[in-house]
Amino acid sequence: MTTAEKIFEEVRALSETQAREVLDFVHFLKSPQMAGKSTQRDMSAFDRFGSVYAGPFNRDELYDRKVLR
Predict the structure, then answer these.
(1) Residue 42 lies in a domain
(2) CA–CA dist 24, 26 (Å, integer)
(3) What is the pTM of this model?
(4) How many domains does the chain have?
(5) In a domain? residue 58
(6) Which residues of 23-61 are buried (b: 16+ CB within 10 A; e: fewer)?
(7) Do the Cβ atoms of 28 and 34 come closer than 8 Å?
């Protein structure tokens, strides 16, 4: 069974109002503003922080600091 067939079976069990909401969601997913969006986020705003700390990282030492006690 394909994904579309599974969706169809699930939607058949819904009320007409809920099925209409599912249809609206499908239209939203197919809309131009969603079509242009990438699954990867733009992290360029954080690039300037990339070289702030280049030393070794120890998570245990991070949480065992005087300021946190």
Answers:
(1) no
(2) 5
(3) 0.47
(4) 1
(5) no
(6) eeeeeeeeeeeeeeeeeeeeeeeeeeeeeeeeeeeeeee
(7) yes
CB-CB contact of 31 with 23 (8 Å):
no
> In angstroms, what CA-CA distances link 31 with 26, 34, 39, 51, 64?
9, 6, 15, 38, 49
- Pair 11, 25: CB distance under 8 Å: no
pLDDT of the chain, 69 residues: tens digit per residue: 899 999 999 999 999 999 999 999 999 888 877 666 666 667 677 776 666 666 777 888 778 877 776
Residue 24 inside a domain? The answer is yes
